[in-house]
Amino acid sequence: MAEERVELRIYNTMTNEKEIFATKEPGKVSMYVCGITAYDYSHLGHARASVSFDILYRYLKHLGYEVTYVRNFTDVDDKIIKRANETGEDPLALSNRFCDEYNVDMSDLLCERPSKEPRVSDHIVEIKDMITQIIHNDYAYVVEGDVFYSVEKFPNYGTLSGQKLEYNRAGERVAVDSRKRHPADFSLWKAAKPGEPSWDSPWGPGRPGWHIECSAMSACYLSHKFDIHGGGIDLIFPHHENEIAQSWAADKESCVSYWLHNGHVTNNNDKMSKSLGNFFTIRQITERYHPLALRHFLISAHYRSPLNYSIAQLETSSDSVYYIFQTLEDCRGALSPFLQVDTEKKEKESQIDDASKECIKKLNVEFQTKMSDDLQTTVILTSALQEALKFVNYSLKMFEKTAELQLVQSLLEVEKEVNKVLSVLGLLSSLSYAEVLQQLKDKALKRGDLTEDEVLRLIEERRQARINKDFAKSDEVRAGLAAKGVALMDVGNETVWRPCIPSEPHASPT
Question: Is the overall model pTM greater than 0.90, yes or no?
Fold first, then answer.
């Protein structure tokens, strides 16, 4: 697929435009993405951010870049301390546990691990050094052990978010404090309070403010100048705005080339978040839906667009993933008897047919064109990929009539190209096609409150009804299973089942 090279364009929040992507160092990409505040299990909003930037990470590598991908963990924060006080747990032990749980969820969603996963508690020295430099440059001031950034001294404050300084109020996670010179001034260092984790500093014992951690850790691993900074759209203000200000105050040469932000996951069109209490954790979803179905759902809308959560959408994604893997399994099953053909014979007759060449070319061109246009995953899922899968199914019908070696080779090449696309999208499991299909069936049974034995018993009951010409009973069994998300298909003299979108919607997970 690398033949059809198209210039990559990505949307830069700083300029509000799609821009041609050009790296600071040829062939290499430096990327920093804000990670989670680790005090609870991660929800769908976290999953969307992680999957969105995982797609970017995979695609950049697919284009041949050497990518240094840094995603942090906030393991020192007010929310962590509050939760730890509620549970009687050490704050760092609690955050460490939820960092590990997050990585379990990311592994389930097939997100690749970043190059670096720094934690705040491991970078206190770098944070203190940056604060010291900001104070030295006269962009921060100390009040009773607290250190505040003076926003009025930064001439470009508000450039990323478009917020005017005169209209700014104290931002998220920034307490109103009469000691501040300006209401929008934010904490770089917080003086120690009883029962909170703290570290010694030139300004007295305390801990970092929220914003400084990302400036310090991105500089630590990527320098003050790097290519991409990403995160959720809710981080534009105040978090990323404050990062820009404090990084500039520490080093006036600091520069991020592209600011990328993914859209919210919404629930009934309200942002899904812990603070609003309208969220589902990743595990609540993957308990009932395959992680690949959830990943498919998360990339079914453009990464910058809002994505409204619904059971119907999850069912559609689950059905789509099943179709993908069933097609690939059917292809592999049909071709397997021919895969041991003599190698010399293969080489002599390895020319693939024109229809397959056209299918591969179309998939290749559309994949490169749409992914290079700010990662249009939804178009890939609904257009080129679907057409390639339909082509495989059509070819398999032809294969039943004539099992020519050329057709075997052609189908193998189409399968290989489909798998390349699925790999970049993160939808290609390390398990076999058959194993993924069985997992999808198991999840469908769970959602329908059924067991395989019950389904087989009902299939037998329907068979007997048909023998007795009791077609009303036969239809009743089929409809009852369809309502629960199980479709029956008569194949010759045998009846098999597969998951389907239920005719009666399942309830949301709780």
Answer: yes
